[in-house]
Amino acid sequence: MNTPRQRPIELTTPRRRLKTTPAVSLFRPEIVLATSITAAPARRTVILAEPGARPDALRTQLGTAQSVLAGLDDARQTLGAAAADARTRAQAAASTRERVSATIAAYRAEGALDDVLTGAWRQVSALMEERGLR
Length: 134
Hints:
The protein has helices at residues 55-91, 96-130. By secondary structure, it is mainly alpha-helical. It has a domain at 76-134. It starts with 54 loop residues before the first helix and ends with a helix.
């Protein structure tokens, strides 16, 4: 099996030089220096006024707080009296039905007082947040 040999392929390099470009080109900004630097104008500092400097706002907040507390006191007196009356009726009840009815009325009065307390707490918390105390 004598097969004639094939001639090797000759590679020739190009006569001109190949130009290669880098895969990553770096950003090279020119540095510019300022000839003169001026400071930013000074701003006036903001200072919160004391309550004496803003009496109208203070009067409004005091009025709101007084009305919330007065409403809470009125509700306490009214609902406390209703709960006490219901407890008295429950103790003096002749039948089980009257006792249960009076006890339910006492629980309802106490629940209403809890609702009033929760509402007053929310209003007072909002006043405190408005004044920056919370």
